[in-house]
Design brief:
Blueprint lengths: L1 H5 L6 H28 L7 H8 L3 H11 L20 H12 L4 H23 L4 H13 L12 H16 L3 H12 L9 H14 L7 H6 L2 H9 L2 H13 L5 H4 L11 H9 L11 H21 L3 H15 L6 H6 L2 H11 L3 H23 L7
Helix pairs in contact: 2-6, 2-7, 2-20, 4-5, 5-6, 6-7, 6-8, 7-19, 7-20, 8-9, 9-12, 10-17, 15-16, 16-17, 16-19
């Protein structure tokens, strides 16, 4: 409450900086305390390494392997032709480089790096939240102490993906297209869907062009007449193209990251059929929805929020988020909860909506903090909806 006081209207610059930097730090500490308590309830080993290792679930172990060993040239023996190629290189490469400087286990380095990325993502989100104090508090709580905070504080791509996405949209908000293109390239090296943020860039260019009074038909001519805009567009998927080239030179298949998906049970199919199968997977006992149902709810809810973004005229963010949900949904519902909560434009808008009144703000804050402990235990226990 003291920090909220500091951020009152009319506060000076120094007070505002203290608020912006201190709020996420508060939730870094509280989130660590809550998640560690969940870990300690099932483990007698008190070390931070044990905590980080226990929270390293599912895809996390693949990223640890990439950071330590890189990519293999052939499928891993005795693992049904599975390879690491489906996991994009930027984040494990960053962790690997940091690990060469600091003599700590990879998972410890990755956990600290993820917390730092999520902290930075909160700070970057301040102007994207229109400097809304209550929304900023909620957003920081959600990322760092919320029910899905383990996704943003262990070795998964979500921390870097959220940070880079926020930077791209902040650059677009300020019409800094070269910066947006550069960070889009990094985003496309983090996850394959990051390459599609280029559509948000083009939409923002078109929006700025129309605000200047330009005719629709002349938009392509305007873009081709601006080398900075062309460069921003062309470099956006550079990270993806670099990875394709790397795979071609080392594995012999530039699209190995797509072809290996079959080994993980991801096969292209009917989106509506996947959703129906998820919704119809009724619990055999009790009323709590099954993991497939939660995944289907997340996908539908995420697409609905994309519609709200479009209604609020945030067309670039709406298109990008819709692609990020639909593309993996083409293969199945796996990881859908994680994919949806890891979309910064959706969570930023949701925090703005929840902070509309003090009552909803307090309720949401209490819910985020209260749900962190049981959700962390569910994550450690391997609950499939959280994969």
């Amino acid at each position: 409450m003291a920090l909220l006081n500091i951020a009152r209207p009319g506060a000076n610059f120094r007070a505002m900086v203290i608020f912006i930097t201190a709020i996420p730090l508060v939730f870094v500490v509280s989130g660590l305390a809550i998640r560690y308590a969940a870990f300690a309830s099932i483990s007698a080993e008190p070390t931070f390494e044990a905590y980080a290792r226990t929270l390293c679930r599912w895809d996390c172990s693949w990223y640890v392997g990439i950071a330590e060993k890189g990519y293999e040239r052939f499928p891993i023996a005795n693992q049904s032709n599975v390879g690491r190629w489906g996991f994009f290189p930027l984040y494990p490469m960053i962790v690997g480089m940091i690990g060469t400087v600091f003599p700590f286990p990879t998972i410890v380095v990755a956990t600290i790096t993820s917390i730092a990325c999520s902290y930075a993502a909160c700070v970057v989100a301040w102007p994207l939240l229109e400097k809304n104090v209550r929304a900023y508090v909620l957003y920081c709580a959600f990322l760092l102490s919320g029910p899905f905070s383990f996704h943003f504080t262990t070795f998964l791509t979500e921390p870097l993906f959220v940070l880079l996405t926020s930077i791209v949209f902040l650059a677009l908000k300020r019409s800094n297209y070269l910066a947006a293109g550069l960070f889009s390239a990094l985003l496309s090296a983090t996850r394959v869907v990051g390459a599609f943020v280029v559509f948000a860039t083009v939409i923002q260019m078109f929006k700025d062009y129309r605000q200047q009074g330009g005719a629709i038909r002349s938009f392509p001519v305007w873009v081709f007449g601006r080398p900075d805009l062309l460069i921003a567009i062309l470099i956006s998927p550079a990270g993806l193209f670099a990875y394709i080239l790397f795979l071609y030179l080392t594995v012999g298949d530039g699209f190995a990251f797509l072809h290996v998906q079959r080994a993980f049970g991801r096969v292209a199919g009917n989106v509506f059929l996947y959703l129906w199968e998820g919704l119809s997977a009724m619990p055999t006992a009790g009323w709590i929805p099954t993991a497939p149902q939660w995944s289907a709810f997340a996908a539908i809810g995420g697409l609905a929020l994309c519609g709200v973004l479009a209604f609020r005229k945030q067309y670039g963010a709406a298109v990008f988020c819709a692609i990020c949900i639909t593309l993996p949904l083409i293969t199945n519902l796996a990881s859908m909860v994680r994919y949806v909560v890891g979309l910064a434009p959706l969570t930023i808008m949701l925090m703005q909506l929840l902070s509309a009144s003090k009552l909803t703000w307090l309720a949401a804050l209490a819910l985020f903090l209260g749900a962190c402990y049981p959700m962390t235990k569910a994550w450690i226990g391997g609950y499939l909806a959280l994969v």
